[in-house]
Amino acid sequence: MFKTESYIQRRNQLKQQIGSGLLVFLGNNESPMNYPDNGYRFRQDSTYLYYWGLELPGLAAAIDLDEDKEIIFGNDFTLDDTIWMGPQPRIKDQAARVGVKTTAAFKELETTLAAAVEQGRKIHFLPQYRHDNIILLSSLLGVSPQQLNEQKSLEFAKAVIKQRSIKSDEEIAEIESVFDITYVMHTYAMKHARPGTVEHEIAGAMEGIALAGGGYIAYPVIFSIHGETLHNHHYGNTMQTGDIAVNDCGSASPGHYASDITRTIPVSGKFTEKQKEVYQIVLDAMEGGIAKMQPGVPFMEVHLHSASVLLEGLKSLGLVKGNLDAALAAGAQGLFFPHGVGHMMGLDVHDMENLGEDYVGYDDEIKRSSQFGLSGLRLGKRLKPGFVATVEPGIYFIPALIDRWQAENKLSDFINYDAVEKYRDFGGIRIEENVVVAENGHRILGKPIPKTITDVEAMAD
Ligand code: GLY
Q1: CATH number of 169-458: 3.10.129.10, 2.60.120.260, 3.90.230.10, 3.40.50.300?
Q2: Which of 5, 94, 102, 342 has the most CB atoms around it within 10 Å of its CB?
């Protein structure tokens, strides 16, 4: 948790952005896995954490903008709760840690909202993504669950996005603190992914490292010799000599700030010449993209620059042909790189995605493209100091996509399908760093994790 003053200051800043009405915040609840008492590990809602700091199920909060009042709703533990889960400070005492003086039982949320509805006041709430909270809020506001999110407050969501997008020094320090664990996760994989090892041995050990470090995994580990499947969560393959494994994983801090790092590693310890060629192109694309990052530069340009480096490299391998500016404009890179080069990162690995990806990543000036590949770019707008984003280009050979494009003869002025065929079984390579935008440029976050061919290979010695 941050110091009390930080939470007070965050709420004050929010209040200044929104004129009037009642701001409602719902925390998350326990989520059952297979029966009510056997739950997934509790994860608080990130916006709740940002403004109210408390990591407990069964909480809500409200800010009455017209009366300048703040309240946390939640129930103190009963004796039965204490017997099963141990003692817990009273809600009142927990609220004091984040500078809130008024608390009430959770059922008072209903009374508060009923009064606001009765008085015809504006009730601001954020888009809801947990089914129990959708049902709760629907019933309190008298709206059908299917229609609840149509009534979300865009003004509230945009104000939160504006504020959470700029990471404070203490947030950046917390993000940076998790990289020591992420380093251990990635270097463990580099040392232990060997022929005969099954992917789940590595994926499970890395998850254990994150938990043993006192934090969490920031998102389900992606570890696969089939890296051409972008988010591959199947860990059942036995690795063989000649395979390369995409390892996309990161730890999150106890306060839930994420890291999101990808490396691609040779299972036999050494890349083949063919793998080295593709790897170096992806590394150049990542470093070229990062070099562009500074305040005022649209992240769309970072994406397009990385894509142009990929195209240039693919042309040198004979996979792409023709004029590269024209190929970029036509989207030929989408066959090999069908995703965006990065996204905002913070309390969520895809930061604030639940508030609306287009509001987080785009604005009135820069709109999302509809072009295949580029349409997956989650962040396009101009960078500002304090933004934290991933930069993660890749080259993938996805048989189903190659077949589709070839059958359509798609962009055949730019793609040499005969040459692509020779890479059909290649898999995929992605390399990723996390970057904070500074007043005069940028900084790559965290303890450096090996990424050059020489350094990655040296980890296997
Ligand atoms: N690293 C996983 C993702 O960006 O979705």
Answers
A1: 3.90.230.10
A2: 342
